[in-house]
Amino acid sequence: MKKLILALMIAALTLAPFAVMEGDNVTRDFVLVFDSSRSMQGTPIQSLESALKSVIHTIFRNSPRARIAVIGYEMTTKMYSDFRGADQESALINSVTGLYAKNGTIMSTALADARRTLSRSSAREKIVLFMSDGAPEHDVVRDIAEEAMLLQRIADVYSIGFFQNMSESEKRSSEMVLELISGDADKCFTVENEYELTDVFRDIAEEVTLSRDKIILRVENQADIMVTCNNETLDGYNRRTSFGTFRYSGGKQDMSILRLDAKNTYDIEIIGYQDTHVNVSVSYPDQRGFYTDNRSIKYIPVTYGSILTGEMEPGKDFWIQLDYNGDGEWEEEYVTRRNSQIHATEPMQPIVTFSKVGRRISNYNTFVYASSELEPSQYGTYEAKHAIDGDIKTVWVEGTYGAGEGEWLTMYFDPTEIIGFVIQNGMVKSPESFDRNVRVEDMIIRVDGEPEMQVTLYDSLNDQTVLFNHPVYTSSLTLELSTFYTVGALEELTTCITDVWLITE
Fold first, then answer.
1. Which of 24, 232, 392, 484 is the most buried (most CB within 10 A)?
2. How far is the CA of 400 from the CAs of 3, 375, 493, in angstroms?
């Protein structure tokens, strides 16, 4: 089954009429999965009920051969309706009438039930809309990730986060879970009040059933973007026009995603408001609705007042001019052609030192997740939270077979400017413990708005400082394990990280 593709780069083709349009005959099975835990009580659950009814109507209007099943979850799951078609729309609407909220939240079982429901489907396209209003309460991220990966093998999964009354770090940690569930930040949507729920549900339904003739424009990192066509402007304040929609990926304002009618020519303006780099990409669909030609311009330097201007037109070059100082004269022009990628500047390359540099930032408001955790033993627990607790007697230990290549640790915090981080590599509480356990040699580093970086750590129990070559404004830091020091380690090959601290100037 061909899956719907939301490309991360830019495509530019001459467009032809599309075979799949409104009222098509494609067989699609949807599973709507929603959070009915106690935090949804009151107005939120009532707004969710309206959103579900609206999305059911939208799906059947645009895709008459579709079927829809509905699952709610809190501490347990409930099948509100098995698959029903357009001729049973009234029964589906009735099934989600009078919703109520109670108990805590377990996401993994809801994902498993969605997978089991779709395993009976023979539809050409299988789609899951998974809604949650926060982080998991009673299951671990590893279980959610495992169930999500199984579900993603058979279906396109879209996640919707309803984040009200949350701090920025709480939002980022919840967004991470939803991105795991969807498997793609482009398929992760967020709302901050109940009034937006209906619009987001409808946007996803139309994206799945109608949007195969949309240009996708992405701007990554802190910058304002405006797109103009026929005297209308689409931006972060006016997010809906006659020609397109605007949203932030995962709710973060460091990735803007715009979906634009493919038949028009658009003027683009991007304004910087801090020292950083901006990545711009555009994707055009072919006549089958797949994004087969991708273009991007990466690491464009901007500062406060920088202005990027450009033009998108189907079948022609995509170009951007950079006015770095905002003085009305452009210094650089970047032009992309079919399936091309331009690096405006070189990616960041961190260095490792034992010197004390900068100021450590408290981990008090930091949330941390890991791809896996070693099961508790008689010697203690090995959860991700130990990597930010400042205690050399506790460690995070990855929980896979072998040393843990590809395992990761992600910290989420309120947006701040960092110059790097300090890491205690391995189990550093004693030389004997250090030698008996695996240490990280090479790791991949990811921060908001920057390309992946690879760094080699020393095989030392002393604090190591990883310094970036310029400050980065970010709300997350991911460390992915790549290669390892194993000399002296026990046969079990358990890789440890004792602690990590962010540092600022």
1. 484
2. 29, 10, 10
Distant-in-sequence, close-in-space partners of 238: CB < 8 Å, separation ≥ 6: 246
Query: In degrees, to the nearest 5, what angle opens at C-alpha 177 toward C-alphas 386 and 239?
Result: 135
Q: Is residue 217 part of a domain?
A: no
Do residues 315 and 14 lie in contact, with contact meaning Cβ atoms separated by under 8 Å?
A: yes
Amino acid at 161: G
> Are 440 and 425 contacting, i.e. CB atoms less than 8 angstroms apart?
yes
Let me know whether 355 and 338 are in one domain: no
- 81 and 156 fall within a common domain: yes
Residue 475 sits at the vertex; the CA angle it makes with 469 and 476, to the nearest 5 degrees, is 75
Same domain, 123 and 154: yes
| Lookup: tokens for 209 | 């059933």
Q: How confident is the model at residue 449 (pLDDT cuts 50, 70, 90)?
A: low
Are residues 68 and 143 located together in one domain of the fold? yes
Domain boundaries, position 278:
232-343
Task: For 371-403, give the DSSP string.
Answer: S--PPPBTTB---GGGGGS--TT--EE--SSSS
C-alpha distances out from residue 431 to 391, 462, 488, 493, 499, Å: 16, 11, 11, 17, 16
| Amino acid code (one letter) for 194 | E
For residues 197 and 240, membership in a common domain is answered with no
Segment 103-154, tens digit of pLDDT: 988 999 999 999 999 999 999 999 999 999 877 777 777 788 889 989 999 9
For residue 477, give the amino acid letter.
L
- Give the CATH number of the domain where residue 441 resides: 2.60.120.260
**pTM here?**
0.66
